Structure formats: structure tokens, C-alpha cells
């Protein structure tokens, strides 16, 4: 409390003093926790204590000194939180808990005052009801004798909030907190007896955790003048200083996000020491007991805590408080509620959630599909205010004809008529529900149902409201958010819709309770929810008690421990094979029927067989079921699947640290934009237009924020068709959608909902989204191998057991005749590759070395297969690789269908959207899909419904050496035979986790199966001249490469304007020499790290860049080379610049002004240019840093890709001494003649750094 007036303080202290004198032997326990507001605040000690603090201490000691015995202590806490000093006082004090009431108005609070005047022994304690608040002493020793006083308080009094306050004092110090017009007053019992409410002068004084009032200045009668004189003289200097309450402690009355500093586990509790670094709070201790004592937490974990304060300590126990662990792992409400039956299935289904879409696992999904469509029908009818049967029927027919519905029915193999017949019975039920609850037209059928909800829905707030709540670690989509009128009161409720038989099961109730919790924390007045079973219009109000909420949060916490990836450090500590293969899973249930039908029973039994910590009884159905299931598979099959699951888990742990989704609630929009993951402070312009079932928005930058006054959109890492989230400062993920168009000053999104309807007076922010679907898809692909089906058995034999490829002994004459014309333009090796692919029974590998005409060969193969009437699935790791083949087929007038949204502009008329634009039934959709014998899609897009319905004759995987083994499996499930194409000596799959790479995660399926029997090699190359080919052969290909013809072998960089080149410095003339022996040049910069000592570039702003992975000195050299190439009439499109790091690519784009292609090695895979400049960037003096990027500059395969992109000229810019520390480059420099290595020293060969830097 801030003490503003000397007289007010005199009155305040004198009241306490008089009370102590009058009560004589009454005991008082006072705990002062005060924080001195001063720049020179000192610790509480004998030498450093302020005189005013000592006087207050002395005063309170005097006030108690007349007590009879000296058994207890008075405790005074110092600012520096050292051990409190204690002084002996009278006998045991009456430690109290006072329940503070917050009322709607002063009169309500003051009407309670008569209750205060009752002698303590005659008092009636409070009942445990929400609208009656105990304002009396509630000491622990008398709790059991207190009685309810509901009758004492008038029914007209409305108490809105209450809270417990600890150790406020004896029953002579009773306070009531009242709220009126957003003000609160503190009233003392003595004042209530003598001062009427209208005599109060209320002054609001705010701190971080409390609001209190200061009483009016009316002088108290009966106070002896000597006492007032004593106060005035003895405490005068106290009141000249400013005081405030200690606010450094965290207030856990509401949910608070904190970091664990220390964990102490005791017998029946766990003691957490936490702080909030961002808010400068001091370390605070929280004791967790009861069910919370086993929480899986450790030092440095982030948690969310709500607790109550008892005896000056924050407590979480079975009756109050929450502890949310791993709050950044947002778990859906449906997953949590589903885990009530079987936690093990909940974890497996979340991790392997795409497994049910694989052909071997596709079962009857009719109930789920019908339920989903009925949801949509009811929600749309409510949104459009449709309430008659005929109109609802028309709406149903309209929904059944949408593209999304057709795709859903096609994927589920449900006919339109079957679907319509199953939805029709719900139409009158929807009409009945809307009429009764929304139109307030009572329906007898609903009234006749026992215990049905009696209220009415006054307004629909939202439909499919998306809530992400890191405070609880939960997320969910609420079917309907409704404003409901119950007993003349209105409140917001979630309405959960079910289409099955009414059961009001624990799972369904839990889902509603979770939504209640989430909605209440978004600022809505929500304490109950509605659960509707539409089939019979059975609807009940679901209440939520603390035990239910507690148990659901505990369940959510237990799931989080399984969903959050293990840290790389923990994984690196796993050494044994069995430890590495284990997946953390809950214990299984004992339910024969459920376990035998479970989609994940094979995975469940596999892990049970490896888990020695779980001992099942012989009666458990999984014992017999496990033996029956696992006997079908070899131990090598089980080991392979478990091994790859563990590798994927390792990779996920490495990439989870880069998960940008958590930035949505941990960083401001401006900080997220600085990290290039957000476009912040936007507003919607123009009209939001309907786009099928989506909404088209155009956003522009708001210029109201001075920091972001530039109207241009900073796209940075964003791209077209990217999935993004739209949020505000107060709501995370308001809607999600795709980027439709990017302009310099605007960005257009196709969103799931119209964000303008919320009337939000805030800026919008567009954020990148880190989806876990790639990992779950890969896990599903691996787990799917254990299906008991013909295709999976074949894949196990090939992929796991490495069954050799088999071929037909001879091809029939008709096949040879049909392919003759097509193959005549290929060389003999290419022709042989095509014929071997046709004769292969199950699979073939084609090794396409650089420039060997791999794409041309594949196009010829597709053309032959198409002529033979075979269906072909063309897939690859990237969209560009798929489009590259399809573009060549387009020129040959071969029909095909391109699946996916990211397609080449020239292929839009072959896209799925174009082909299915007029399809409004599943049968018409099937007709289109079945009519296309050639389908193009990426490996990640292979979970498309079409691949679940069709099996192709041949699957061709281009660039397969860049694809993870689990990723490439998905298209193989949908083919009788597959052809893998690639080069294992070029880029491998990208794996960030070092341990996973060490254990083989970067081994592609091509590399796994590569052998003389299984592989045919394309060796005639049509790209590089003989100098560059020689380098590639000696560095990587062991002289297997040969020139396709002499013209390519002797091709060189031609300089049309030689006279221009002669005017340049000598080092430039050598670098750009057109002599074939000078096709490869190394420009040795020396250690550029030392140059900044002699040249000041700070004023140009370039030294602020990443100096480790970018190099401004190399950038100016590259810029000079490009300018000179253009001077001698080289074409921009014939020049390419490659860099190993993105930071250096960004710098090069900034320095090299010309519109030239600059990219990383990975982006140049499959590309070529006449002239390639490779800038290595790295220049250091401490070679111990070399270890950090062995997978980039130290990767032999990346260097192979870089040098084989060049046709006629290759220039490497590098600090030769630094780069030679990498073995691949050391070998490269050894192979290059000394005359082709040019040292760039000042005044040597006309080189001058000072002149070069003028480019900047």
C-alpha cells in the first residue's frame, strides 16, 4: 500500500495500536513484506537498515510487548530476501486465512457488515457455495466447527469473485474487497462499525498484483492526543519515504508461464523454483503435491503454473491449481479425450496418423465421413439462417456437389446416393434443433427428452472456432461457439456436435470440458458447455469441476511427455541398439476386442516385444495377439522398421529446435519478422470474396507503426502456395490458408474463414507454419511395411531383405517394334536402360551421372510405356524435377495429369484443379482420374486420394538419391514395379541430426539397393568439356564418364570481344582466358579475415553480415568477374553463381547488381550453365572451426555437384589455405595445375583490393 498522507497513516496505525491495547492479551502475527523504492536501497541488516524501517519494527514489537508469554515470533522480510530475523512474541498466534469477497457494488459489501459484529464463538461460517463468500477468520483449527451463513446474507447481494488471503491477522483485522465501477475498497471492521459507506473517500492505488484504497481523512474520535503525538514524532521520517508492496514475486493466482530453475523431489511432493526472466521477477517456489508430485519436469523446462497461496507458500494440490508441462506442445482436445480409453493408441495414432491413408490400411470410413458432412450441414444451415426441411435438403444437395465433398467421397469409396440416403434422416433433426433452440419455437420432440437442456441459443458467436492456447498446451476447433440464455442469464458456451448414438460418454464429456477451459481463457464468460447428439436431438449442459479439469490436464501432461521429441543430447547418450530402437509409449490396455481391431496393433506388439519394463499377464489379449501378429515377420523386418522410426525421431528432435510455430506466443510480431518468419502489422483492403468454401483476402502493410512505415511487403522466406497462419496480438491462428499471390505492396491469401467478420481492431500478422505432417507421413510409410498384404510383403523383400532385381529373359517382338522409333534418338547405353526397365519384373536402378541425358532417357521410357498401354506414376523429391519431365512429355503431345498445387505455369491446363473443375460427383471425379494413364506428383504429395484408389503398372522416381527411404516408400505402395533414377555420388537426403547421419539416415533407397545386378549406368555425358570432365572423373567417377561427341569435348568459353579483355588487369585476363586448358581457374584470395584491419567497410554496412558463412571480399571479386564477362558480351543466362551457405548467397545478391542466378549447391542440382563461379566464402585463422560445417564444404558429394554444373568455364574463388582443410577440396586443388591457381596479392598481376572495393 502506498502511504500518501501523514494523517491517514496516523489513523491507520493508531487503529491497530488501540485494538491491541483494548484486546490486551490478544495475539497478533504480522508479516511485513515491503519493498523500498529507492535508487540506493540497502539490504536489511544492522548497519544498512533505514531508520524508518527500524522504527516500524520497534513499534510493532512495543504493541505486543505486554503479552503474557514469549513463545511465538514476529517475522520481518528484507528486500534482499535473506534469512528473516525473528523476535519472540507472545503465545501461539491465531494464523488465519481470510476469504476476500469482491462484490458488484459498495452497498452489497456494506450490507454484510452486521455479520462482522457477531461474537466469534457465535459466528456461522460459510457454506461451500459460489455466491457466498467467507469474510471471517477461517483458522485451520476451527474450520471443522464453522457453519454456513447463507441465510444471513441477502439474496440481492451478488458476489462476483473471491480469493484467499493468508495470515492477514486475528479476527480483529477483517477486510472485505468490494468492486464498484472498476474500483475496489478495503474496509476494516472498526471503520464499518462507525463510518457509513458514503463517508469514504476512495482512491485507487495500483500495483502489479493488488488494488487497495486509502480511507478518508475523517479523524477518529477517542484516540488520545498523546498517542497521536507519539505517532507524529516517532514516525515522521517514515512518511517522508515512498513505499510500495513487494511485486518481485510471481503471482500465481492466474496461469503464469515460467522457467524452472531448480527441482527438489521429496517423499510426497515436488518443490519447483521458477522465475520469469522476461519480467524480471525473483525466484519463486511452488510446492506440488497429490497427483502433481510425479510431474515429469527438470531444470530449464518451461511450464505454466496456477496455484494458491497458503502460509506464504504457493501450493498446487488435488483441490486447487494446475501445472502444465511442455506447454509449447499444443495437443488437440480430441487426442486428450481419446486417450481416456487407451493412451497408447492415442500416442501411436498421433505419430503415425497418416498410416490409415495407405492402401493396405484403408478400411470403411463411412461413419466418419457421414458425421463430418452432417456437421457441415448443421453449421452451414445455422450460418445461413436456414430452418425449413425443404431448404435444408437443398443445402445438403449443394454441399454434396462441392469439390471438397466429391474428393472426400471418392477417397472413401462412397457413392453420392449412399451418402445422401445416410444424411437425409438428419435433415428433420437439424430443422427441429434450429427451430427450438435458435428460433425459440418450442418443439415437443425435444421437450419430451428427459434432462434435455432447457435454455435457448441467443446468438451464434462462431463456427469451427480455432483456439490455440499455450497457457494450457491445448488446441482445438469448437463446432459452435454460442451465446446461450439460461434462467434469464446469458453466457458463452461451446457446443460439441455428435452424430452417433447418445451416450454422454466420458470421452465426449471430456472434450466439452476441455473446450470450456479453453474458451474461458480467451476472455469469454464460459463455465459450462453443451453436448448435442443430433441423431435424437439429445442435448445436455456439461458442468466442469476442478477434479475433472485437473485430471484432464494431468492426462494432457502425460501425453506431452510422449509427443515432445527427445533432445539431441539425450539421444546421443543412448548407446545400445535396443535403447535406440525404443519409442516411449504408455502401457497398453487389456481389451481383447479393441486391441484385435486396432490399426496400430502390429506396432504396439512390436514395441511390447522389445520393452522389458512391461510384463503382461498371460490373460492379457496382447500376449496371444502379439505372437500371432509377429510370427508373420522376420526379425530383420522388425529391426528395420524400429531402426528407421528411431532415426526419424532423432531428426525430428534436431528440427524441433527450429520450430517457428512457438514464436507465435513467445515473440512479438516485430521480432518474428526480424527472424524472417512473419509479415507483421497488416490490414485487409477491399472486399473479402468467396472462393469455393474458402475466403480470398488481400493484405497491405499498415503505415501507422513508425518502425514499419515502409508499405512494401518483406517476403523473405515466404513463397507462393505456402501454408501460413493469420494471427493478431490477442488471438493465435485466427485462420490458416495458402499464399495465392505476392506483390510488392500487397499479399493475397486464401483462408479457411473470413477474418474481417470478427471486427478486430488490431493488426493482422502472417506467420510461417512448421508442420509435423512430414514426420508423421514418414513414420506412417515405415510402419506401413508391417501390413499383412501382398504389396507390403513384396516391399519388405526388396527394401529390407535386398532381394536382387529379376528380368524377363527376352522381350516380345511387339514391344521391341513399338519402341524402335522412340529409341532411335538415344545412344546405345540409354536404349539398353529403357529396355531393361521394361523387362524388369519388380524394380531397376538407373544411375544418371552428370550430363548423361537422364531426363531424355526417362521421357523415352514413359513414351514407350504409354504406347504399350501401361499406367505410369512419375514422382520425385521436388516439384521442379517432376515438372521437368512433364514439360518434355507436353511437347510430345502425351496426355497426363499433374497433382498438387505447385506447378509450372505451362502445366496449369494439365493440373488437377483444371481437369476436375466441372466434377460435382465422386463418379465424375473417378472418371477423370481413371482416364489419365500418366500421373505426376511429388513423393510428399503421394498421400493423394488417387494413389489410394489406383495401382500403377510402373512408378518412376527421379532424383531418388535425394529422397529419404521412408519418403520414397509412399509412391511405391501404389505401384507393381518401380524404377529408381539418380546418382549416389551427388546430393544425398538432407539430415540435420549428426547421430542419425552416422547411423545411416542419409542412405537413400537407391544407395541401399545399388549393385552391378540391380543398376545400369549412363556414362556418356553431353555437358562438360574435356578439362572439366577430367576433373570430375578423377575427383569422383573413376574415369567412367566419357564425352558424348567431340564438339562437346572441345567446347570452350568464347570471348567475342577479346580487345576489351586486353584492357583489363592481368589476373582478370587469366581468369577469363578462352583456352580450353584454362577452363578451370582457382582465384586464391588468401586469408580475407585479416583484410578488415586495413580496410574500413563498416560505413558501408557490410561487416554487420554473417562473417563466418559469408565473405564480402569474395563477393566483390565475383562482382568484378561478372561485370567483365558482360563487357566481353557473355549472356547473363549463361552465367551461374554458386555458394555453399545461404548467408553468402544473400550477400552476393546484394553486391552483384546484375539479374543473375545465384543459389546454393542444393538448388543447382540438376541444372547447368556455360560459366559457373563457385565462391566458397570460408576464410578463418582458427582451423578448429572447420569441424562445424563438414557436412557442407566437407561433403565430397556437394563439391561434385558444384563443379559438374559448368559446361565450359569453372572459376573457384576461395581462401585456398582454409578450404584445403577439407579433404575433398584438398584433392581438387591437387588435380588443378599450378598455372590455373592465381594468387590475389596486392600489386601482383595487377590486383588491388582498394580498387576492387570501389564496387561497393
TrEMBL record:
<dbReference type="GO" id="GO:0051539">
    <property type="term" value="F:4 iron, 4 sulfur cluster binding"/>
</dbReference>
<keyword id="KW-0004">4Fe-4S</keyword>
<dbReference type="InterPro" id="IPR011604">
    <property type="entry name" value="PDDEXK-like_dom_sf"/>
</dbReference>
<keyword id="KW-0067">ATP-binding</keyword>
<feature type="domain" description="DNA replication factor Dna2 N-terminal">
    <location>
        <begin position="282"/>
        <end position="484"/>
    </location>
</feature>
<keyword id="KW-0539">Nucleus</keyword>
<comment type="similarity">
    <text>Belongs to the DNA2/NAM7 helicase family.</text>
</comment>
<dbReference type="InterPro" id="IPR014808">
    <property type="entry name" value="DNA_replication_fac_Dna2_N"/>
</dbReference>
<keyword id="KW-0479">Metal-binding</keyword>
<dbReference type="Pfam" id="PF13087">
    <property type="entry name" value="AAA_12"/>
</dbReference>
<keyword id="KW-0547">Nucleotide-binding</keyword>
<dbReference type="GO" id="GO:0005694">
    <property type="term" value="C:chromosome"/>
</dbReference>
<dbReference type="Pfam" id="PF13086">
    <property type="entry name" value="AAA_11"/>
</dbReference>
<dbReference type="GO" id="GO:0003677">
    <property type="term" value="F:DNA binding"/>
</dbReference>
<keyword id="KW-0158">Chromosome</keyword>
<dbReference type="InterPro" id="IPR027417">
    <property type="entry name" value="P-loop_NTPase"/>
</dbReference>
<keyword id="KW-0238">DNA-binding</keyword>
<dbReference type="GO" id="GO:0006281">
    <property type="term" value="P:DNA repair"/>
</dbReference>
<dbReference type="GO" id="GO:0005524">
    <property type="term" value="F:ATP binding"/>
</dbReference>
<keyword id="KW-0378">Hydrolase</keyword>
<dbReference type="InterPro" id="IPR041677">
    <property type="entry name" value="DNA2/NAM7_AAA_11"/>
</dbReference>
<keyword id="KW-0347">Helicase</keyword>
<feature type="domain" description="DNA2 rift barrel">
    <location>
        <begin position="670"/>
        <end position="768"/>
    </location>
</feature>
<dbReference type="InterPro" id="IPR047187">
    <property type="entry name" value="SF1_C_Upf1"/>
</dbReference>
<dbReference type="Pfam" id="PF21123">
    <property type="entry name" value="Dna2_Rift"/>
</dbReference>
<dbReference type="InterPro" id="IPR045055">
    <property type="entry name" value="DNA2/NAM7-like"/>
</dbReference>
<keyword id="KW-0408">Iron</keyword>
<dbReference type="InterPro" id="IPR048459">
    <property type="entry name" value="DNA2_Rift"/>
</dbReference>
<keyword id="KW-0227">DNA damage</keyword>
<keyword id="KW-0411">Iron-sulfur</keyword>
<feature type="domain" description="DNA2/NAM7 helicase helicase">
    <location>
        <begin position="825"/>
        <end position="911"/>
    </location>
</feature>
<keyword id="KW-0235">DNA replication</keyword>
<dbReference type="GO" id="GO:0017108">
    <property type="term" value="F:5'-flap endonuclease activity"/>
</dbReference>
<dbReference type="GO" id="GO:0005634">
    <property type="term" value="C:nucleus"/>
</dbReference>
<dbReference type="Pfam" id="PF08696">
    <property type="entry name" value="Dna2"/>
</dbReference>
<comment type="function">
    <text>Key enzyme involved in DNA replication and DNA repair. Involved in Okazaki fragments processing by cleaving long flaps that escape FEN1: flaps that are longer than 27 nucleotides are coated by replication protein A complex (RPA), leading to recruit DNA2 which cleaves the flap until it is too short to bind RPA and becomes a substrate for FEN1. Also involved in 5'-end resection of DNA during double-strand break (DSB) repair by mediating the cleavage of 5'-ssDNA.</text>
</comment>
<dbReference type="GO" id="GO:0033567">
    <property type="term" value="P:DNA replication, Okazaki fragment processing"/>
</dbReference>
<dbReference type="GO" id="GO:0005739">
    <property type="term" value="C:mitochondrion"/>
</dbReference>
<keyword id="KW-0234">DNA repair</keyword>
<feature type="domain" description="DNA2/NAM7 helicase helicase">
    <location>
        <begin position="926"/>
        <end position="993"/>
    </location>
</feature>
<keyword id="KW-0255">Endonuclease</keyword>
<keyword id="KW-0496">Mitochondrion</keyword>
Amino acid at each position: 500500500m502506498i502511504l500518501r498522507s501523514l494523517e491517514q497513516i496516523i489513523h491507520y496505525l493508531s487503529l491497530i495500536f488501540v485494538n491491541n491495547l483494548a484486546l490486551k492479551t490478544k495475539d497478533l502475527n504480522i508479516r511485513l513484506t515491503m519493498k523500498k523504492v529507492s535508487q540506493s536501497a540497502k539490504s536489511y541488516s544492522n548497519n544498512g537498515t533505514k531508520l524508518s524501517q527500524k522504527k516500524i519494527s520497534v513499534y510493532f514489537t512495543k504493541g505486543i510487548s505486554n503479552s503474557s508469554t514469549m513463545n511465538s515470533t514476529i517475522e520481518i522480510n528484507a528486500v534482499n530476501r535473506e534469512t528473516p530475523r525473528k523476535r519472540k512474541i507472545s503465545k501461539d498466534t491465531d494464523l488465519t486465512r481470510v476469504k476476500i469477497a469482491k462484490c458488484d457494488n459498495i452497498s452489497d459489501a456494506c450490507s454484510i457488515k452486521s455479520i462482522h459484529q457477531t461474537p466469534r464463538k457465535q459466528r456461522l461460517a460459510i457454506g461451500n457455495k459460489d455466491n457466498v463468500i467467507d469474510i471471517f477468520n477461517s483458522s485451520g483449527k476451527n474450520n471443522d466447527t464453522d457453519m454456513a451463513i447463507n441465510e444471513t446474507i441477502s439474496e440481492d447481494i451478488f458476489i462476483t469473485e473471491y480469493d484467499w488471503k493468508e495470515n492477514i491477522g486475528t479476527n480483529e483485522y477483517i477486510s472485505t474487497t468490494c468492486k464498484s465501477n472498476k474500483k475496489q475498497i478495503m474496509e476494516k471492521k472498526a471503520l464499518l462499525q462507525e463510518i457509513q459507506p458514503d463517508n469514504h473517500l476512495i482512491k485507487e492505488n495500483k500495483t502489479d498484483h493488488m488494488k487497495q484504497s486509502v480511507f478518508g481523512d475523517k479523524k477518529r474520535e477517542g484516540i488520545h492526543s498523546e498517542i497521536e503525538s507519539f505517532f507524529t514524532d516517532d514516525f515522521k521520517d517514515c512518511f517522508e519515504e515512498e513505499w510500495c508492496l513487494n511485486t518481485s514475486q510471481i503471482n500465481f493466482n492466474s496461469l503464469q508461464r515460467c522457467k524452472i530453475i531448480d527441482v527438489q523431489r521429496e517423499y510426497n511432493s515436488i518443490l519447483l523454483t521458477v522465475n520469469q526472466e522476461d519480467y524480471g521477477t525473483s525466484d519463486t517456489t511452488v510446492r506440488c503435491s497429490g497427483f502433481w508430485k510425479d510431474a515429469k519436469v527438470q531444470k530449464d523446462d518451461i511450464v505454466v503454473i496456477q496455484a494458491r497461496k497458503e502460509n506464504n507458500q504457493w501450493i498446487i494440490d488435488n483441490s486447487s491449481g494446475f501445472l502444465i508441462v511442455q506447454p509449447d506442445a499444443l495437443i488437440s482436445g480430441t487426442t486428450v479425450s481419446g486417450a481416456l480409453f487407451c493412451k497408447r493408441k492415442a500416442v501411436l495414432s498421433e505419430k503415425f496418423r497418416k498410416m490409415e491413408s495407405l492402401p493396405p490400411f484403408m478400411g470403411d470410413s463411412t461413419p466418419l465421413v457421414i458425421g463430418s458432412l452432417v456437421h457441415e450441414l448443421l453449421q452451414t444451415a445455422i450460418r445461413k439462417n436456414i430452418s425449413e426441411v425443404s431448404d435444408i435438403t437443398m443445402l445438403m444437395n449443394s454441399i454434396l456437389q462441392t469439390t471438397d465433398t466429391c474428393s472426400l467421397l471418392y477417397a472413401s469409396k462412397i457413392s453420392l446416393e449412399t451418402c445422401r440416403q445416410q444424411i437425409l434422416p438428419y435433415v428433420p433433426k437439424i430443422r427441429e434443433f434450429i427451430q427450438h433452440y435458435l428460433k425459440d419455437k418450442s418443439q415437443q420432440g425435444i421437450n419430451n427428452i428427459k434432462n434435455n437442456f432447457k435454455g435457448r441459443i441467443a446468438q451464434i458467436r462462431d463456427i469451427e472456432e480455432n483456439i490455440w492456447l499455450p497457457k494450457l498446451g491445448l488446441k482445438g476447433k469448437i463446432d459452435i461457439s454460442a451465446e446461450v440464455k439460461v434462467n434469464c442469464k446469458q453466457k458463452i458456451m461451446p457446443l460439441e456436435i455428435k452424430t452417433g448414438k447418445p451416450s454422454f460418454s466420458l470421452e465426449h464429456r471430456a472434450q466439452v470440458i476441455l473446450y470450456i477451459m479453453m474458451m474461458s481463457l480467451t476472455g469469454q464468460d464460459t463455465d459450462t458447455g453443451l453436448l448435442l447428439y443430433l441423431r435424437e436431438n439429445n442435448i445436455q449442459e456439461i458442468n466442469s469441476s476442478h477434479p475433472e479439469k485437473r485430471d484432464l490436464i494431468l492426462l494432457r501432461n502425460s501425453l506431452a511427455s510422449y509427443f515432445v521429441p527427445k533432445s539431441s543430447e539425450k539421444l546421443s547418450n543412448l548407446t545400445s541398439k535396443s535403447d535406440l530402437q525404443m519409442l516411449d509409449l504408455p502401457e497398453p490396455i487389456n481389451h481383447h476386442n479393441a486391441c484385435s481391431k486396432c490399426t496400430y496393433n502390429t506396432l504396439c506388439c512390436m514395441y511390447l516385444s522389445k520393452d522389458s519394463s512391461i510384463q503382461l499377464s498371460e490373460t492379457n489379449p496382447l500376449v496371444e495377439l502379439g505372437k500371432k501378429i509377429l510370427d508373420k515377420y522376420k526379425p530383420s523386418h522388425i529391426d528395420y522398421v524400429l531402426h528407421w522410426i528411431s532415426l526419424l525421431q532423432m531428426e525430428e528432435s534436431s528440427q524441433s529446435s527450429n520450430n517457428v510455430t512457438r514464436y507465435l506466443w513467445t515473440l512479438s510480431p516485430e521480432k518474428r519478422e526480424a527472424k524472417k518468419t512473419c509479415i507483421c502489422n497488416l490490414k485487409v483492403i477491399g472486399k473479402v470474396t468467396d472462393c469455393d468454401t474458402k475466403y480470398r483476402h488481400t493484405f497491405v502493410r499498415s503505415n501507422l507503426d513508425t518502425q514499419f512505415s515502409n508499405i512494401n511487403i518483406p517476403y523473405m522466406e515466404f513463397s507462393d502456395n505456402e501454408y501460413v497462419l493469420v494471427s493478431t496480438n490477442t488471438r493465435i491462428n485466427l485462420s490458416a490458408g495458402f499464399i495465392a499471390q505476392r506483390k510488392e505492396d500487397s499479399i493475397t491469401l486464401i483462408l479457411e474463414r473470413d477474418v474481417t467478420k470478427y471486427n478486430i481492431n488490431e493488426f493482422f500478422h502472417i506467420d510461417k507454419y512448421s508442420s509435423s505432417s512430414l514426420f508423421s507421413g514418414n513414420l506412417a510409410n515405415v510402419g506401413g511395411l508391417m501390413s499383412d498384404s501382398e504389396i507390403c510383403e513384396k516391399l519388405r523383400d526388396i527394401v529390407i531383405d535386398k532381394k536382387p532385381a529379376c528380368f524377363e529373359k527376352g522381350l516380345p517382338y511387339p514391344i521391341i517394334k513399338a519402341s524402335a522409333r522412340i529409341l532411335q534418338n538415344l545412344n546405345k547405353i540409354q536404349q539398353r536402360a529403357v529396355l531393361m526397365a521394361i523387362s524388369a519384373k519388380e524394380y531397376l536402378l538407373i544411375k544418371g551421372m552428370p550430363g548423361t541425358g537422364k531426363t531424355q532417357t526417362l521421357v523415352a521410357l514413359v513414351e514407350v510405356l504409354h504406347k504399350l498401354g501401361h499406367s505410369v506414376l512419375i514422382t520425385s523429391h521436388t516439384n521442379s524435377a517432376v515438372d521437368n519431365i512433364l514439360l518434355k512429355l507436353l511437347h510430345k503431345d502425351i496426355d497426363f495429369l499433374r497433382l498438387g498445387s505447385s506447378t509450372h505455369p505451362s502445366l496449369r491446363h494439365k493440373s488437377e484443379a483444371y481437369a476436375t473443375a466441372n466434377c460435382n460427383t465422386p463418379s465424375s471425379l473417378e472418371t477423370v482420374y481413371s482416364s489419365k494413364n500418366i500421373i505426376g506428383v511429388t513423393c510428399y504429395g503421394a498421400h493423394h486420394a488417387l494413389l489410394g484408389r489406383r495401382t500403377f503398372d510402373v512408378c518412376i522416381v527421379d532424383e531418388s538419391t535425394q529422397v529419404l527411404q521412408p519418403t520414397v516408400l509412399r509412391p511405391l505402395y501404389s505401384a507393381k514395379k518401380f524404377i529408381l533414377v539418380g546418382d549416389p555420388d551427388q546430393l544425398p537426403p538432407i539430415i540435420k541430426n549428426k547421430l542419425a547421419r552416422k547411423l545411416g539416415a542419409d542412405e537413400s533407397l537407391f544407395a541401399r539397393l545399388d549393385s552391378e545386378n540391380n543398376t545400369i549406368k549412363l556414362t556418356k555425358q553431353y555437358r562438360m568439356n574435356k578439362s572439366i570432365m577430367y576433373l570430375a572423373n578423377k575427383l569422383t567417377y573413376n574415369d567412367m564418364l566419357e564425352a558424348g561427341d567431340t564438339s562437346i569435348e572441345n567446347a570452350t568459353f568464347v570471348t567475342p570481344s577479346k580487345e576489351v579483355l586486353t584492357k583489363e588487369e592481368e589476373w582478370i585476363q587469366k581468369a577469363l582466358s578462352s583456352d580450353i586448358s584454362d577452363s578451370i581457374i582457382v582465384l586464391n584470395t588468401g586469408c580475407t579475415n585479416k583484410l578488415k584491419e586495413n580496410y574500413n567497410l563498416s560505413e558501408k554496412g557490410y561487416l554487420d553480415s554473417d562473417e563466418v558463412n559469408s565473405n564480402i571480399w569474395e563477393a566483390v571479386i565475383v562482382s568484378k568477374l561478372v561485370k567483365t564477362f558482360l563487357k566481353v558480351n557473355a549472356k547473363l543466362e549463361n552465367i551461374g553463381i554458386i555458394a555453399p551457405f545461404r548467408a553468402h548467397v544473400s550477400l552476393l545478391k546484394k553486391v552483384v547488381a546484375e539479374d543473375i542466378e545465384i543459389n546454393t549447391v542444393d538448388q543447382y542440382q540438376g541444372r547447368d550453365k556455360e560459366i559457373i563461379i563457385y565462391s566458397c566464402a570460408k576464410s578463418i585463422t582458427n582451423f578448429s572451426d572447420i569441424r562445424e560445417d563438414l557436412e557442407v564444404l566437407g561433403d565430397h558429394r556437394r563439391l561434385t555437384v558444384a563443379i559438374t554444373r559448368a559446361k565450359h568455364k569453372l572459376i573457384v574463388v576461395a581462401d585456398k589455405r582454409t578450404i584445403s582443410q577439407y579433404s575433398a577440396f584438398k584433392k581438387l586443388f591437387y588435380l588443378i595445375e599450378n598455372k590455373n591457381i592465381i594468387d590475389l596479392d596486392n600489386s601482383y598481376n595487377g590486383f588491388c583490393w582498394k580498387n576492387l572495393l570501389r564496387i561497393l
